[in-house]
Amino acid sequence: MTFTSGAELADPLAELLGDNAIDAAIAVAHPNIALVKYWGKRDESYLLPVTGSLSMTLDIYPTTTAVRVSAEPADTVELNGRPAVGEAYTRVARFLDLVRERAGRDEHAVVVSSNAGPTGAGLASSASGFAALAVAAAAAYGLDADARALSRLARRGSGSACRSLFGGFAVWHAGEGDGEAGDVSSYAEPIDGDALDPALVVAVVDDEAKAISSREAMRRTCDTSPFYLPWADASRIDLDEMRKAVARRDLPAVGEIAERNALGMHASMLLARPSVRYLSPRSVALLDRVLALRANGIAAFATMDAGPNVKVLCARADEQRVIAALREGGDVADIQLAHLGPGAALVTDGPR
Ligand code: ADP
Ligand code: DP6
């Protein structure tokens, strides 16, 4: 698979906007990887989480999204060069309904979006996708929204997207209450952690879309796993400890908390009925390599999302040794090196 960078995509998307760039905008957003995970909703319609989470935004795999308000009778959505259909289309069209409602407008839109990274493979395409869509659609419809309002808006498309509004490290506050009350209090904001400046080595074992979406797996875990509530309780403590570890730039502590939080999330979904298992034998082999790195004195820690791919957090000084160790097994399709990346922005804007 070849990936295209956001910069290369900007030109064809700009063509789509045509000469008349009024009511049209292009935005770029990057995925974020949670070091304390969001897993479980307390309100499905407002996408309100059970627990808060903390992430780092990456500098790889950008999503570029163009939105043009149009006189067509329905929204049209193109994703990765093909018309979006089914759930992928509906999620975008429902999201645009929210934007239209807030903007007091009713015209439909043409949306063209491309992910530079794999889609639906546990590499956070829904996060970069809905963060880019939130920024581009808000601008195209002339919505007056500050960063917090955009974060809340992006959350309605995909929970994790609220964190991709911001560069570096971000915390998503769970907020309080359900419905409208929960909606105003549940947003992400950046936290100071840039000095930590870690590397995240992304070991891609499979870039195909997963069989069970994060949304379905999360719902099933919440509804049926006896390990869900213990994980959620532990995750609240992890978030407190993680914030302190980031503030004191303690990479080994950040990594240790991230790894246990991710393993707990996967344990909770293993006990869902029916069980959800995203990790494959290749993922487990990579986890063994991370253990071996640590046994050799390298502070490297793994985190995994809703897919088999493994991301390894380490100091920049160790990144090449980590890459070499993960390659050694020979069972990895691709390795990408990521660092802290920028927040979502219009292509004419600076990053947030
Ligand atoms: P991932 O691990 O890649 O985030 P998810 O199952 O959480 O996988 O989300 C994948 C879904 O997110 C896609 O099926 C699609 O509905 C949506 N999505 C992905 N990229 C975009 C995008 N650029 N624009 C709009 N929606 C997107
Ligand atoms: C494992 O944000 O994709 O990546 O809100 O239903 O769209 P929805 O789910 P989504 O779930 C992300 C789950 C995760 C953990 C995380 O990013 O915090």
Quick structural summary:
With about 350 residues, the chain is of the alpha+beta class. Helix content is about 40%, strand content about 20%.
Q: What would you say this structure looks like, in words?
A:
- The chain starts with 5 loop residues before the first helix and ends in a 6-residue tail after the last strand.
- The radius of gyration is 19 Å and the shape is globular.
- Mean pLDDT is 93; it is low at 1-9.
- The chain has ten helices and 16 strands.
- The protein has helices at residues 6-17, 86-103, 125-140, 147-157, 179-185, 214-224, 228-247, 251-270, 281-295, 319-328, and strands at residues 24-29, 32-36, 41-43, 48-49, 53-57, 63-70, 76-79, 82-83, 108-115, 169-172, 188-191, 199-204, 301-304, 310-314, 334-338, 345-346.
- The protein is α+β, with helices and mostly antiparallel strands and 352 residues long.
- The protein folds into two domains: 2-194 and 340-346, Ribosomal Protein S5, domain 2 (2-Layer Sandwich), CATH 3.30.230.10; 199-338, GHMP kinase, C-terminal domain (Alpha-Beta Plaits, 2-Layer Sandwich).
- The strands form four sheets. It has a six-stranded mixed beta sheet with strand order 8-7-9-6-1-16, sandwiched between helices.
- Ligand DP6 is lined by residues 34, 37-39, 47, 53, 126, 158-160, 214-215, 218, 305-306.
Bound molecules: adenosine-5'-diphosphate, ligand DP6
How much helicity do the residues have?
A: 25-40%
Number of domains: 2
What is the average per-residue confidence, as pLDDT, rounded to a whole number? 93
Counting DSSP E segments of at least 2 residues, the number of strands comes to 16
CATH class call of the largest domain: Alpha Beta
